[in-house]
Design brief:
alpha+beta; two-stranded antiparallel sheet
Length: 185
């Protein structure tokens, strides 16, 4: 091309700057939508856990724990809310950057957590575990763990969450029923 600066490459080949510029522009146009779609997916909360969950009890286990009984009991009765891009607990929202899901066998769960699935009231050979990715946060005052950021799907309507080695059973909180008008005569 006349009037276009050219670059002499290592092998003596000529690469036209105008063509290179067009290639970079088209590459950006191709990659940006894909990157934007990936970012949107990174903030996707699995529908299996979306909504409100109430922590109903501590599950007795034999693994190492870093909380005393009083601190562990303080979570019972609290509510976890899983939104599209955040985990909400005790009024504070922790932004979620990704939700990683995996199926983990009973043996692998025992190896990783030093807890057997039957201790959690789960009688299956494997479970689905969802690990919510977020920045470290000191919301409990004892650890950078966020209660409810690792979820085990125990059954429909029941999950198991942990904090500082303490495992909790949580149940789905259904929407409050609407009041029916009184039947009149």
């Amino acid at each position: 091309m006349v009037g276009t600066p050219a670059l002499r490459g290592w092998a003596g080949l000529s690469l036209d700057f105008a063509i290179l510029n067009i290639m970079v522009k088209h590459l950006r146009l191709l990659l940006l939508p894909a990157l934007a779609a990936g970012a949107a997916q990174a903030q996707f909360m699995p529908t299996s856990i979306s909504g409100r969950w109430r922590i109903v009890k501590i599950l007795p286990t034999h693994n190492p724990q870093c909380w005393d009984e009083a601190r562990a009991k303080s979570l019972v009765g609290t509510t976890l809310t899983y939104k599209a891009d955040a985990l909400v607990w005790r009024g504070g929202a922790e932004p979620i950057t990704d939700a990683l899901s995996r199926t983990i066998s009973r043996r692998k769960f025992l190896d990783e957590y030093k807890v057997d699935l039957p201790e959690l009231g789960i009688g299956t050979a494997s479970v689905t575990e969802i690990d919510l990715q977020h920045e470290d946060a000191d919301i409990t005052g004892a650890t950078t763990e966020v209660p409810g950021d690792t979820i085990v799907l125990a059954s429909p309507g029941r999950i198991v969450v942990s904090a500082c080695g303490v495992f909790y059973s949580a149940v789905r909180v259904s929407a409050k029923p609407t009041a029916r008008p009184a039947a009149g005569r």
